[in-house]
């Protein structure tokens, strides 16, 4: 059966929908954010061993690039710890809305990291997102503000490691890159597990089930589906679809968790404003690119 563009859309939407479950699973797993992330990166790394040649990895990738990718893996680890930390400190809905601000941080940080010029419509995005953040802060209990701050830090870390990946991965094998980055994340987080004190390290039977779903289905499988879909779809279509992750996640959290009882209408107005800004950003990019093509003709 031929791999068509329509099938690629279906697989990418499935991957994004499953990514929306990561916040739900993070809320359900009764482990600290640090322990949860360590088990996730460990299990995902182990699942990729069969797809990479470990003995030749450093020689084929090159020591410098290997160390760069390992460093990016440390940033990925910090992103996931802060993401699940935001869930534990606030709730899944708040953590997901914070992730919708990644475009704002990318507009500010990517030019500095990659070395390109600032784009006016990307900076304009930030102006529209900031009132949304204010409404969200105003729409939750003050005790959740720390969770919001940690969630925004997590979104900033996403923009950092995404920009670094764009700059350094080149034509490397995506599966190998993922193994190096998540393997480095596993080793980086391991020493910090000793600082947990009396907190539980071993997952319960229920936690094991959720962790396996998180690692094998919501990480390894979605990574495979998204990469295969990207080979067929345009960058714009892919980015527009990926922007649906917080929408799916918030929708799932509303029905599967008790988040709605903790949030006021201002939270949802702020969320709507941020999502309008994010999708408006992609529309603006499409408009600017079309206009640029017409000027060149």
From TrEMBL:
<feature type="transmembrane region" description="Helical">
    <location>
        <begin position="12"/>
        <end position="31"/>
    </location>
</feature>
<keyword id="KW-0472">Membrane</keyword>
<feature type="transmembrane region" description="Helical">
    <location>
        <begin position="208"/>
        <end position="227"/>
    </location>
</feature>
<feature type="domain" description="EamA">
    <location>
        <begin position="147"/>
        <end position="280"/>
    </location>
</feature>
<feature type="domain" description="EamA">
    <location>
        <begin position="14"/>
        <end position="137"/>
    </location>
</feature>
<keyword id="KW-1133">Transmembrane helix</keyword>
<feature type="transmembrane region" description="Helical">
    <location>
        <begin position="143"/>
        <end position="165"/>
    </location>
</feature>
<protein>
    <submittedName>
        <fullName>Drug/metabolite transporter (DMT)-like permease</fullName>
    </submittedName>
</protein>
<feature type="transmembrane region" description="Helical">
    <location>
        <begin position="66"/>
        <end position="87"/>
    </location>
</feature>
<feature type="transmembrane region" description="Helical">
    <location>
        <begin position="119"/>
        <end position="137"/>
    </location>
</feature>
<dbReference type="Pfam" id="PF00892">
    <property type="entry name" value="EamA"/>
</dbReference>
<keyword id="KW-0812">Transmembrane</keyword>
<feature type="transmembrane region" description="Helical">
    <location>
        <begin position="177"/>
        <end position="196"/>
    </location>
</feature>
<feature type="transmembrane region" description="Helical">
    <location>
        <begin position="267"/>
        <end position="288"/>
    </location>
</feature>
<dbReference type="InterPro" id="IPR000620">
    <property type="entry name" value="EamA_dom"/>
</dbReference>
<feature type="transmembrane region" description="Helical">
    <location>
        <begin position="37"/>
        <end position="54"/>
    </location>
</feature>
<dbReference type="InterPro" id="IPR037185">
    <property type="entry name" value="EmrE-like"/>
</dbReference>
<feature type="transmembrane region" description="Helical">
    <location>
        <begin position="234"/>
        <end position="255"/>
    </location>
</feature>
<dbReference type="GO" id="GO:0016020">
    <property type="term" value="C:membrane"/>
</dbReference>
<feature type="transmembrane region" description="Helical">
    <location>
        <begin position="93"/>
        <end position="112"/>
    </location>
</feature>
